[in-house]
Design brief:
Helix content of chain A is 40%, strand content 12%. Chain A has 16 helices and 11 strands. An 11-stranded mixed beta sheet of chain A has the order 1-3-2-4-6-5-10-11-9-7-8, sandwiched between helices. In chain A, α2 packs antiparallel against α3. Chain A is globular. The two termini of chain A are 19 Å apart. Chain B has helices at 5-11, 18-35, 74-79, and strands at residues 84-85, 88-89. In chain B, a hairpin with a 2-residue loop joins β1 and β2. Chain B is built from 3 helices and 2 strands; from the N terminus they run αααββ. Chain B is mainly alpha-helical and 96 residues long. Chain B has a domain at 2-39. Classes of the chains: A alpha/beta (476), B mainly alpha (96). The interface between A and B is large, with 73 and 56 residues.
Chain lengths: 476, 96
Amino acid sequence: MTIEKLRQKLLDKEISAVELTKEYLEKIKRKDKEINSFLTITEDLAINQAKEAQKILEKYGDKSPILCGIPCAIKDNILIEDIRCTAGSKILENYIAPYDATVIKKLKESKAVILGKTNMDEFAMGSSTENSAFFVTKNPHDKTRVPGGSSGGSAAAVAADFCQFALGSDTGGSIRQPASFCGVVGLKPTYGAVSRYGLIAMASSLDQIGPITKNVQDAKIVFNIIKGKDKLDSTSVDCENFKSDIDKKDIQKLKIGIPKEYFVKGIEENVKEIIEKNIEKIKKAGFKIKKISLPHTQYALSVYYLIMPSEVSANLARFDGIKYGKSIIKSKKQIANNLFEVYSKTRGKYFGKEVKRRIILGTFALSFGYYDEFYNKARKVRRLIKDDFKNALKEVDLILTPVSPTPAFKIKEKINDPLKMYLSDIFTVAPSLAGVPAISVPLRVPQNTLPIGLQIIANNFQENLLFEFGKIVEKI
Amino acid sequence: MKIEIENILKLARIEIDEKEKKEIEKDFFSILKFVEKIEKVKTEGVKPMSYPIDVYNVMREDKKTNDKNQIVNSKKLISAAPETKDGFVKVKSILE
Protein backbone atom coordinates (compact mmCIF):
# COMPACT_ATOMS: atom_id res chain seq x y z
CA MET A 1 0.00 0.00 0.00
CA THR A 2 1.13 3.56 -0.67
CA ILE A 3 0.08 6.85 0.93
CA GLU A 4 -1.39 7.97 -2.39
CA LYS A 5 -3.46 4.80 -2.84
CA LEU A 6 -4.68 4.92 0.74
CA ARG A 7 -5.62 8.55 0.23
CA GLN A 8 -7.56 7.62 -2.91
CA LYS A 9 -9.51 5.05 -0.89
CA LEU A 10 -10.39 7.73 1.64
CA LEU A 11 -11.38 10.17 -1.10
CA ASP A 12 -13.46 7.53 -2.89
CA LYS A 13 -15.21 6.79 0.44
CA GLU A 14 -14.20 3.16 0.17
CA ILE A 15 -13.30 3.49 3.84
CA SER A 16 -13.61 6.37 6.32
CA ALA A 17 -10.65 7.77 8.24
CA VAL A 18 -12.23 6.52 11.47
CA GLU A 19 -12.75 3.01 10.09
CA LEU A 20 -9.20 2.93 8.79
CA THR A 21 -7.80 4.04 12.15
CA LYS A 22 -9.90 1.49 14.02
CA GLU A 23 -8.75 -1.21 11.63
CA TYR A 24 -5.13 -0.40 12.39
CA LEU A 25 -5.71 -0.13 16.16
CA GLU A 26 -7.41 -3.53 16.13
CA LYS A 27 -4.53 -5.03 14.20
CA ILE A 28 -1.97 -3.59 16.63
CA LYS A 29 -3.91 -4.96 19.61
CA ARG A 30 -4.22 -8.36 18.01
CA LYS A 31 -0.79 -8.80 16.52
CA ASP A 32 1.74 -6.53 18.20
CA LYS A 33 2.04 -9.04 21.05
CA GLU A 34 4.25 -11.03 18.69
CA ILE A 35 6.39 -8.09 17.55
CA ASN A 36 6.38 -5.61 20.48
CA SER A 37 6.87 -2.56 18.30
CA PHE A 38 4.72 -0.15 20.33
CA LEU A 39 5.48 1.26 23.79
CA THR A 40 2.29 3.30 23.97
CA ILE A 41 -0.88 3.11 21.89
CA THR A 42 -2.53 6.53 21.63
CA GLU A 43 -6.03 5.29 20.95
CA ASP A 44 -7.99 8.35 22.13
CA LEU A 45 -5.74 10.75 20.26
CA ALA A 46 -5.95 8.61 17.11
CA ILE A 47 -9.75 8.34 17.14
CA ASN A 48 -10.15 12.09 17.70
CA GLN A 49 -7.68 12.90 14.94
CA ALA A 50 -9.41 10.46 12.59
CA LYS A 51 -12.82 12.04 13.27
CA GLU A 52 -11.41 15.46 12.47
CA ALA A 53 -9.62 14.15 9.39
CA GLN A 54 -12.89 12.64 8.14
CA LYS A 55 -14.65 16.00 8.48
CA ILE A 56 -11.89 17.67 6.47
CA LEU A 57 -11.94 14.95 3.82
CA GLU A 58 -15.69 15.39 3.45
CA LYS A 59 -15.43 19.17 3.29
CA TYR A 60 -12.35 19.63 1.09
CA GLY A 61 -12.08 16.37 -0.85
CA ASP A 62 -8.86 16.23 -2.84
CA LYS A 63 -7.95 19.70 -1.56
CA SER A 64 -7.44 18.26 1.94
CA PRO A 65 -3.85 17.89 3.14
CA ILE A 66 -1.88 15.01 1.65
CA LEU A 67 -1.61 13.05 4.93
CA CYS A 68 -5.23 13.65 5.96
CA GLY A 69 -6.44 10.51 7.75
CA ILE A 70 -3.24 8.52 7.10
CA PRO A 71 -2.25 6.48 10.21
CA CYS A 72 1.34 6.73 11.44
CA ALA A 73 3.59 5.79 14.37
CA ILE A 74 6.17 7.93 16.15
CA LYS A 75 9.46 6.92 17.74
CA ASP A 76 9.24 7.41 21.48
CA ASN A 77 11.91 10.11 21.67
CA ILE A 78 9.72 12.65 19.83
CA LEU A 79 7.39 14.67 22.06
CA ILE A 80 3.61 14.68 21.59
CA GLU A 81 1.79 17.00 23.97
CA ASP A 82 0.10 15.19 26.89
CA ILE A 83 1.36 11.78 25.73
CA ARG A 84 3.90 9.72 27.67
CA CYS A 85 7.38 9.92 26.17
CA THR A 86 9.92 7.44 27.54
CA ALA A 87 12.81 7.50 25.04
CA GLY A 88 13.01 3.79 25.91
CA SER A 89 14.36 4.64 29.37
CA LYS A 90 13.28 3.83 32.93
CA ILE A 91 14.20 7.36 33.93
CA LEU A 92 11.34 8.71 31.75
CA GLU A 93 8.93 5.84 32.34
CA ASN A 94 6.17 8.17 33.54
CA TYR A 95 7.15 11.37 31.76
CA ILE A 96 4.30 13.23 30.04
CA ALA A 97 5.42 15.53 27.21
CA PRO A 98 4.45 19.17 27.89
CA TYR A 99 4.49 20.25 24.23
CA ASP A 100 4.57 19.03 20.62
CA ALA A 101 7.80 18.59 18.70
CA THR A 102 7.86 20.70 15.53
CA VAL A 103 7.55 17.57 13.34
CA ILE A 104 4.44 16.59 15.34
CA LYS A 105 2.95 20.06 14.87
CA LYS A 106 3.50 19.61 11.15
CA LEU A 107 1.95 16.13 11.08
CA LYS A 108 -1.02 17.42 13.06
CA GLU A 109 -1.44 20.34 10.65
CA SER A 110 -1.46 17.92 7.75
CA LYS A 111 -4.05 15.85 9.62
CA ALA A 112 -2.13 12.60 9.90
CA VAL A 113 -3.45 10.18 12.55
CA ILE A 114 -1.02 9.17 15.31
CA LEU A 115 -1.56 5.57 16.45
CA GLY A 116 1.19 5.35 19.05
CA LYS A 117 4.79 5.60 20.16
CA THR A 118 7.31 2.99 19.10
CA ASN A 119 9.98 1.09 20.98
CA MET A 120 13.63 2.07 20.71
CA ASP A 121 17.04 1.57 22.25
CA GLU A 122 17.30 3.68 25.41
CA PHE A 123 17.86 7.32 24.34
CA ALA A 124 18.46 5.98 20.81
CA MET A 125 21.70 4.30 21.87
CA GLY A 126 21.94 0.95 20.17
CA SER A 127 21.63 -0.96 16.92
CA SER A 128 19.11 -3.66 17.84
CA THR A 129 16.39 -2.11 20.07
CA GLU A 130 17.54 -4.60 22.73
CA ASN A 131 18.69 -1.64 24.86
CA SER A 132 15.07 -0.60 25.44
CA ALA A 133 14.42 -0.59 29.19
CA PHE A 134 11.02 -2.15 28.53
CA PHE A 135 11.10 -5.04 26.07
CA VAL A 136 12.77 -6.42 22.96
CA THR A 137 11.15 -5.77 19.58
CA LYS A 138 11.19 -8.61 17.07
CA ASN A 139 11.87 -8.50 13.37
CA PRO A 140 8.60 -9.20 11.49
CA HIS A 141 10.57 -11.16 8.86
CA ASP A 142 12.03 -13.54 11.46
CA LYS A 143 10.93 -13.27 15.07
CA THR A 144 14.16 -14.78 16.40
CA ARG A 145 16.03 -11.75 15.04
CA VAL A 146 16.36 -8.09 15.97
CA PRO A 147 14.66 -5.35 13.94
CA GLY A 148 17.82 -3.25 14.08
CA GLY A 149 17.98 0.01 15.96
CA SER A 150 17.66 2.36 17.44
CA SER A 151 14.40 3.08 15.55
CA GLY A 152 13.59 -0.66 15.61
CA GLY A 153 10.00 -0.19 16.81
CA SER A 154 9.21 2.23 13.98
CA ALA A 155 10.80 0.02 11.30
CA ALA A 156 9.08 -3.12 12.63
CA ALA A 157 5.70 -1.34 12.84
CA VAL A 158 5.94 -0.27 9.19
CA ALA A 159 7.16 -3.72 8.05
CA ALA A 160 4.32 -5.44 9.95
CA ASP A 161 1.79 -2.96 8.49
CA PHE A 162 0.75 -1.60 11.89
CA CYS A 163 0.79 1.87 10.30
CA GLN A 164 1.30 3.42 6.85
CA PHE A 165 4.48 5.26 7.86
CA ALA A 166 6.56 6.11 10.90
CA LEU A 167 9.03 8.70 12.11
CA GLY A 168 12.40 7.66 13.46
CA SER A 169 15.58 9.46 14.40
CA ASP A 170 19.04 8.79 13.04
CA THR A 171 22.33 9.70 14.75
CA GLY A 172 24.72 7.16 13.23
CA GLY A 173 22.38 4.88 11.30
CA SER A 174 19.32 4.54 13.55
CA ILE A 175 16.83 5.00 10.70
CA ARG A 176 18.74 3.39 7.83
CA GLN A 177 19.96 0.24 9.59
CA PRO A 178 16.56 -0.86 11.03
CA ALA A 179 14.92 0.01 7.70
CA SER A 180 17.44 -2.28 6.00
CA PHE A 181 16.89 -5.08 8.56
CA CYS A 182 13.09 -4.86 8.24
CA GLY A 183 12.92 -4.48 4.46
CA VAL A 184 11.46 -0.96 4.41
CA VAL A 185 12.65 2.49 3.28
CA GLY A 186 14.41 4.85 5.72
CA LEU A 187 15.68 8.38 5.09
CA LYS A 188 18.24 10.29 7.11
CA PRO A 189 17.80 13.83 5.82
CA THR A 190 20.60 16.37 5.41
CA TYR A 191 21.69 17.68 8.81
CA GLY A 192 19.48 20.71 9.44
CA ALA A 193 16.74 19.79 6.95
CA VAL A 194 14.28 18.79 9.68
CA SER A 195 13.77 20.62 12.98
CA ARG A 196 14.99 18.79 16.08
CA TYR A 197 12.79 20.84 18.43
CA GLY A 198 11.02 18.34 20.67
CA LEU A 199 13.35 15.47 19.84
CA ILE A 200 14.99 14.18 23.02
CA ALA A 201 18.60 14.99 22.21
CA MET A 202 21.28 12.35 21.98
CA ALA A 203 24.15 13.86 19.96
CA SER A 204 23.08 17.28 18.73
CA SER A 205 25.52 17.64 15.83
CA LEU A 206 24.35 14.32 14.37
CA ASP A 207 20.67 13.76 15.28
CA GLN A 208 18.09 14.03 12.50
CA ILE A 209 14.43 13.00 12.38
CA GLY A 210 13.32 11.18 9.24
CA PRO A 211 10.61 8.98 7.73
CA ILE A 212 10.45 5.18 7.68
CA THR A 213 8.07 4.06 4.95
CA LYS A 214 6.94 1.20 2.71
CA ASN A 215 8.25 2.79 -0.47
CA VAL A 216 10.38 5.69 -1.69
CA GLN A 217 7.48 7.89 -2.83
CA ASP A 218 5.98 7.76 0.70
CA ALA A 219 9.35 8.84 2.14
CA LYS A 220 9.34 11.80 -0.23
CA ILE A 221 5.81 12.80 0.79
CA VAL A 222 6.52 12.61 4.53
CA PHE A 223 9.89 14.35 4.21
CA ASN A 224 8.27 17.26 2.33
CA ILE A 225 5.80 17.68 5.21
CA ILE A 226 8.33 17.63 8.07
CA LYS A 227 11.28 19.52 6.51
CA GLY A 228 12.07 23.22 6.84
CA LYS A 229 13.61 25.98 8.91
CA ASP A 230 12.24 26.31 12.43
CA LYS A 231 12.71 29.30 14.70
CA LEU A 232 12.95 26.89 17.61
CA ASP A 233 15.96 24.99 16.25
CA SER A 234 18.95 27.16 15.44
CA THR A 235 20.54 24.34 13.43
CA SER A 236 17.59 23.99 11.07
CA VAL A 237 18.11 25.33 7.57
CA ASP A 238 16.02 27.40 5.21
CA CYS A 239 13.97 25.47 2.68
CA GLU A 240 15.25 27.65 -0.17
CA ASN A 241 18.36 25.51 -0.14
CA PHE A 242 16.35 22.56 -1.33
CA LYS A 243 16.83 21.67 -4.95
CA SER A 244 13.58 21.39 -6.86
CA ASP A 245 12.49 18.25 -8.69
CA ILE A 246 14.87 16.97 -11.29
CA ASP A 247 13.86 16.42 -14.87
CA LYS A 248 13.07 12.82 -15.77
CA LYS A 249 15.52 12.87 -18.67
CA ASP A 250 18.28 14.14 -16.38
CA ILE A 251 17.99 11.12 -14.10
CA GLN A 252 19.68 8.88 -16.64
CA LYS A 253 22.67 11.23 -16.66
CA LEU A 254 23.35 10.78 -12.96
CA LYS A 255 26.86 9.60 -12.22
CA ILE A 256 27.14 6.92 -9.56
CA GLY A 257 30.16 6.37 -7.34
CA ILE A 258 31.13 3.12 -5.62
CA PRO A 259 33.63 3.72 -2.80
CA LYS A 260 36.21 0.96 -2.70
CA GLU A 261 36.60 1.28 1.08
CA TYR A 262 33.05 -0.02 1.62
CA PHE A 263 33.56 -3.41 0.01
CA VAL A 264 36.34 -4.81 2.18
CA LYS A 265 36.63 -7.36 4.97
CA GLY A 266 33.89 -7.63 7.57
CA ILE A 267 31.05 -7.52 5.09
CA GLU A 268 29.09 -10.76 4.93
CA GLU A 269 29.43 -12.64 1.65
CA ASN A 270 25.72 -12.75 0.75
CA VAL A 271 25.32 -9.02 1.46
CA LYS A 272 28.27 -8.27 -0.80
CA GLU A 273 26.88 -10.53 -3.49
CA ILE A 274 23.42 -8.98 -3.53
CA ILE A 275 24.78 -5.42 -3.47
CA GLU A 276 27.19 -6.15 -6.32
CA LYS A 277 24.50 -7.89 -8.35
CA ASN A 278 22.30 -4.82 -8.03
CA ILE A 279 25.09 -2.44 -8.93
CA GLU A 280 25.52 -4.52 -12.07
CA LYS A 281 21.79 -4.12 -12.84
CA ILE A 282 22.04 -0.36 -12.32
CA LYS A 283 24.92 -0.32 -14.76
CA LYS A 284 22.87 -2.30 -17.27
CA ALA A 285 20.06 0.23 -16.86
CA GLY A 286 22.43 2.74 -18.44
CA PHE A 287 23.96 4.55 -15.47
CA LYS A 288 27.58 5.55 -15.47
CA ILE A 289 29.33 3.83 -12.56
CA LYS A 290 32.65 5.02 -11.27
CA LYS A 291 34.99 3.61 -8.61
CA ILE A 292 35.74 6.32 -6.08
CA SER A 293 37.66 6.63 -2.83
CA LEU A 294 36.65 7.98 0.57
CA PRO A 295 40.11 7.60 2.12
CA HIS A 296 39.27 8.32 5.78
CA THR A 297 36.46 5.74 5.95
CA GLN A 298 38.44 3.43 8.23
CA TYR A 299 38.46 6.11 10.94
CA ALA A 300 34.76 7.00 10.79
CA LEU A 301 33.56 4.60 13.49
CA SER A 302 36.32 5.69 15.89
CA VAL A 303 35.54 9.37 15.31
CA TYR A 304 31.86 8.63 15.80
CA TYR A 305 32.49 6.82 19.09
CA LEU A 306 34.31 9.87 20.45
CA ILE A 307 32.11 12.70 19.20
CA MET A 308 28.76 11.04 19.84
CA PRO A 309 29.50 10.03 23.49
CA SER A 310 30.95 13.47 24.19
CA GLU A 311 27.72 15.09 23.07
CA VAL A 312 25.72 12.40 24.89
CA SER A 313 27.49 13.17 28.16
CA ALA A 314 26.55 16.85 27.83
CA ASN A 315 22.97 16.30 26.63
CA LEU A 316 22.10 13.71 29.26
CA ALA A 317 23.35 15.90 32.10
CA ARG A 318 19.79 17.22 32.21
CA PHE A 319 18.56 13.96 33.73
CA ASP A 320 19.43 14.82 37.30
CA GLY A 321 16.42 13.66 39.33
CA ILE A 322 15.24 17.24 39.80
CA LYS A 323 13.56 18.71 36.74
CA TYR A 324 11.73 15.66 35.36
CA GLY A 325 11.77 11.92 35.25
CA LYS A 326 12.38 9.48 38.03
CA SER A 327 14.35 10.52 41.08
CA ILE A 328 16.03 8.75 43.93
CA ILE A 329 14.25 11.11 46.33
CA LYS A 330 11.06 9.23 45.57
CA SER A 331 12.68 5.87 46.30
CA LYS A 332 11.64 4.11 49.47
CA LYS A 333 14.75 1.95 49.62
CA GLN A 334 17.57 4.36 48.86
CA ILE A 335 18.41 7.64 50.52
CA ALA A 336 20.25 10.64 49.05
CA ASN A 337 22.10 12.54 51.76
CA ASN A 338 22.87 15.61 49.68
CA LEU A 339 22.33 17.14 46.24
CA PHE A 340 25.31 15.34 44.72
CA GLU A 341 23.84 12.02 45.74
CA VAL A 342 20.45 12.97 44.26
CA TYR A 343 22.24 13.29 40.92
CA SER A 344 24.57 10.32 41.12
CA LYS A 345 22.20 7.80 42.67
CA THR A 346 19.32 8.77 40.35
CA ARG A 347 21.53 8.39 37.27
CA GLY A 348 23.17 5.20 38.51
CA LYS A 349 19.83 3.57 39.22
CA TYR A 350 17.65 4.63 36.28
CA PHE A 351 20.06 4.76 33.34
CA GLY A 352 20.72 1.51 31.47
CA LYS A 353 24.14 0.03 30.89
CA GLU A 354 24.77 1.31 27.35
CA VAL A 355 23.74 4.83 28.33
CA LYS A 356 26.16 4.78 31.27
CA ARG A 357 28.91 3.37 29.06
CA ARG A 358 28.56 6.23 26.60
CA ILE A 359 28.25 8.95 29.24
CA ILE A 360 31.43 7.67 30.86
CA LEU A 361 33.33 7.52 27.57
CA GLY A 362 32.15 11.02 26.65
CA THR A 363 32.93 12.47 30.06
CA PHE A 364 36.43 11.04 29.71
CA ALA A 365 36.94 12.37 26.15
CA LEU A 366 35.97 15.86 27.33
CA SER A 367 37.91 15.81 30.58
CA PHE A 368 40.95 17.90 31.44
CA GLY A 369 44.12 16.41 30.00
CA TYR A 370 42.34 14.24 27.42
CA TYR A 371 40.21 16.79 25.57
CA ASP A 372 42.82 17.57 22.90
CA GLU A 373 43.94 14.01 22.39
CA PHE A 374 40.43 12.62 22.01
CA TYR A 375 37.54 15.03 21.46
CA ASN A 376 39.45 17.68 19.55
CA LYS A 377 41.37 15.17 17.48
CA ALA A 378 38.11 13.47 16.58
CA ARG A 379 36.63 16.80 15.47
CA LYS A 380 39.60 17.33 13.14
CA VAL A 381 39.33 13.87 11.59
CA ARG A 382 35.61 14.51 11.24
CA ARG A 383 36.40 17.42 8.93
CA LEU A 384 38.63 15.15 6.83
CA ILE A 385 35.74 12.68 6.54
CA LYS A 386 33.43 15.49 5.47
CA ASP A 387 36.01 16.63 2.89
CA ASP A 388 36.14 13.07 1.53
CA PHE A 389 32.43 13.32 0.70
CA LYS A 390 32.74 16.86 -0.60
CA ASN A 391 35.48 15.83 -3.02
CA ALA A 392 33.81 12.61 -4.10
CA LEU A 393 30.51 14.36 -4.74
CA LYS A 394 32.24 16.72 -7.17
CA GLU A 395 32.98 13.70 -9.35
CA VAL A 396 29.71 11.82 -8.92
CA ASP A 397 26.09 12.69 -8.05
CA LEU A 398 25.32 9.71 -5.85
CA ILE A 399 27.30 7.19 -3.82
CA LEU A 400 26.14 3.61 -3.27
CA THR A 401 27.16 1.41 -0.31
CA PRO A 402 25.63 -1.40 1.74
CA VAL A 403 23.61 -0.15 4.74
CA SER A 404 25.01 -2.73 7.15
CA PRO A 405 27.62 -5.48 6.81
CA THR A 406 25.07 -8.17 7.77
CA PRO A 407 21.33 -8.78 7.54
CA ALA A 408 19.30 -8.78 10.80
CA PHE A 409 21.22 -10.72 13.46
CA LYS A 410 19.83 -12.98 16.18
CA ILE A 411 18.38 -11.56 19.38
CA LYS A 412 21.14 -11.67 22.07
CA GLU A 413 23.83 -12.36 19.44
CA LYS A 414 25.72 -9.09 20.03
CA ILE A 415 24.24 -7.65 23.21
CA ASN A 416 27.17 -8.55 25.45
CA ASP A 417 29.87 -7.21 23.16
CA PRO A 418 29.46 -3.46 22.62
CA LEU A 419 32.19 -3.22 19.98
CA LYS A 420 30.60 -5.96 17.89
CA MET A 421 27.29 -4.13 18.12
CA TYR A 422 28.94 -0.83 17.09
CA LEU A 423 30.34 -2.43 13.93
CA SER A 424 26.77 -2.84 12.72
CA ASP A 425 26.84 0.92 11.95
CA ILE A 426 30.17 0.95 10.15
CA PHE A 427 28.67 2.04 6.80
CA THR A 428 26.14 4.54 8.14
CA VAL A 429 28.22 6.67 10.53
CA ALA A 430 30.36 8.42 7.89
CA PRO A 431 27.46 10.16 6.08
CA SER A 432 26.13 11.18 9.52
CA LEU A 433 29.47 12.74 10.48
CA ALA A 434 29.58 14.56 7.12
CA GLY A 435 25.93 15.67 7.46
CA VAL A 436 24.94 14.49 3.97
CA PRO A 437 21.56 12.85 3.31
CA ALA A 438 21.30 9.08 2.84
CA ILE A 439 18.45 6.69 2.19
CA SER A 440 18.13 2.95 2.74
CA VAL A 441 16.18 1.18 0.00
CA PRO A 442 15.38 -2.55 0.23
CA LEU A 443 16.79 -4.68 -2.58
CA ARG A 444 15.14 -7.64 -4.21
CA VAL A 445 16.39 -10.76 -2.41
CA PRO A 446 15.70 -14.45 -3.08
CA GLN A 447 12.64 -15.84 -1.28
CA ASN A 448 13.09 -16.80 2.37
CA THR A 449 16.20 -14.68 2.75
CA LEU A 450 16.43 -11.71 5.08
CA PRO A 451 16.01 -8.18 3.72
CA ILE A 452 19.11 -6.26 2.61
CA GLY A 453 19.19 -2.52 2.03
CA LEU A 454 21.20 -0.35 -0.32
CA GLN A 455 22.46 2.97 1.04
CA ILE A 456 22.27 5.86 -1.42
CA ILE A 457 24.14 9.01 -0.42
CA ALA A 458 23.85 12.46 -2.04
CA ASN A 459 25.18 15.95 -1.50
CA ASN A 460 23.60 18.30 1.05
CA PHE A 461 19.93 19.07 0.40
CA GLN A 462 19.74 16.77 -2.62
CA GLU A 463 17.10 14.52 -1.10
CA ASN A 464 15.24 14.72 -4.40
CA LEU A 465 18.03 12.86 -6.15
CA LEU A 466 17.78 10.15 -3.49
CA PHE A 467 14.04 9.83 -4.08
CA GLU A 468 14.21 9.77 -7.87
CA PHE A 469 17.10 7.31 -8.00
CA GLY A 470 15.62 5.30 -5.10
CA LYS A 471 12.46 4.77 -7.15
CA ILE A 472 14.58 3.30 -9.93
CA VAL A 473 16.38 0.99 -7.47
CA GLU A 474 13.01 -0.14 -6.12
CA LYS A 475 11.96 -1.38 -9.56
CA ILE A 476 15.27 -2.98 -10.53
CA MET B 1 48.17 6.50 30.78
CA LYS B 2 46.60 6.10 34.19
CA ILE B 3 42.87 6.52 33.90
CA GLU B 4 40.78 6.31 37.06
CA ILE B 5 37.29 5.10 36.29
CA GLU B 6 36.32 6.25 39.79
CA ASN B 7 37.11 9.84 38.91
CA ILE B 8 35.19 9.75 35.62
CA LEU B 9 32.14 8.36 37.44
CA LYS B 10 32.32 11.27 39.86
CA LEU B 11 32.56 13.80 37.01
CA ALA B 12 29.65 12.10 35.25
CA ARG B 13 27.55 12.04 38.45
CA ILE B 14 26.92 8.31 38.24
CA GLU B 15 27.00 6.02 41.27
CA ILE B 16 27.11 2.27 40.61
CA ASP B 17 28.12 -0.80 42.58
CA GLU B 18 31.48 -2.55 42.33
CA LYS B 19 30.22 -5.30 40.04
CA GLU B 20 28.84 -2.88 37.47
CA LYS B 21 31.96 -0.72 37.80
CA LYS B 22 34.14 -3.69 36.83
CA GLU B 23 32.00 -4.47 33.78
CA ILE B 24 31.93 -0.86 32.61
CA GLU B 25 35.66 -0.51 33.17
CA LYS B 26 36.37 -3.52 30.98
CA ASP B 27 34.14 -2.22 28.17
CA PHE B 28 35.59 1.28 28.55
CA PHE B 29 39.15 0.18 27.93
CA SER B 30 38.28 -2.03 24.96
CA ILE B 31 36.33 0.81 23.32
CA LEU B 32 39.14 3.24 24.13
CA LYS B 33 41.62 0.95 22.42
CA PHE B 34 39.39 0.94 19.34
CA VAL B 35 38.94 4.71 19.12
CA GLU B 36 42.59 5.47 19.84
CA LYS B 37 43.56 4.59 16.28
CA ILE B 38 42.62 8.09 15.11
CA GLU B 39 45.88 9.33 16.63
CA LYS B 40 47.60 8.00 13.48
CA VAL B 41 45.74 10.45 11.22
CA LYS B 42 47.70 13.55 10.21
CA THR B 43 45.61 16.56 11.17
CA GLU B 44 48.07 19.44 11.15
CA GLY B 45 46.33 22.62 10.08
CA VAL B 46 42.87 20.98 10.05
CA LYS B 47 40.18 23.05 11.73
CA PRO B 48 38.07 21.07 14.21
CA MET B 49 34.51 20.55 13.00
CA SER B 50 31.58 20.94 15.37
CA TYR B 51 28.55 20.88 13.07
CA PRO B 52 28.07 19.72 9.47
CA ILE B 53 26.68 23.17 8.62
CA ASP B 54 27.57 26.69 9.73
CA VAL B 55 25.54 27.53 12.80
CA TYR B 56 24.78 30.93 14.24
CA ASN B 57 23.22 32.09 17.45
CA VAL B 58 19.60 33.01 17.05
CA MET B 59 18.80 36.08 19.11
CA ARG B 60 15.46 37.46 20.16
CA GLU B 61 14.39 40.33 22.34
CA ASP B 62 14.22 39.53 26.03
CA LYS B 63 10.51 39.99 26.39
CA LYS B 64 7.40 37.89 26.63
CA THR B 65 6.42 36.35 23.33
CA ASN B 66 2.91 35.93 22.00
CA ASP B 67 3.95 33.29 19.48
CA LYS B 68 1.75 30.33 20.27
CA ASN B 69 4.44 27.95 19.01
CA GLN B 70 6.92 29.26 21.55
CA ILE B 71 4.76 29.15 24.62
CA VAL B 72 4.87 26.08 26.82
CA ASN B 73 2.43 25.73 29.67
CA SER B 74 4.54 26.35 32.78
CA LYS B 75 2.19 24.29 34.97
CA LYS B 76 2.90 21.30 32.75
CA LEU B 77 6.63 21.91 33.01
CA ILE B 78 6.61 22.24 36.80
CA SER B 79 4.35 19.23 37.26
CA ALA B 80 7.01 17.06 35.57
CA ALA B 81 9.41 17.67 38.47
CA PRO B 82 9.69 14.92 41.10
CA GLU B 83 9.36 17.43 43.97
CA THR B 84 7.76 20.84 43.92
CA LYS B 85 6.69 23.43 46.44
CA ASP B 86 4.46 26.49 45.83
CA GLY B 87 4.88 26.19 42.07
CA PHE B 88 8.65 25.90 42.27
CA VAL B 89 10.97 22.96 41.65
CA LYS B 90 12.37 21.76 44.96
CA VAL B 91 16.01 20.79 45.49
CA LYS B 92 17.97 19.66 48.51
CA SER B 93 19.78 22.43 50.34
CA ILE B 94 23.05 23.32 48.66
CA LEU B 95 24.65 24.99 51.68
CA GLU B 96 25.78 22.78 54.50
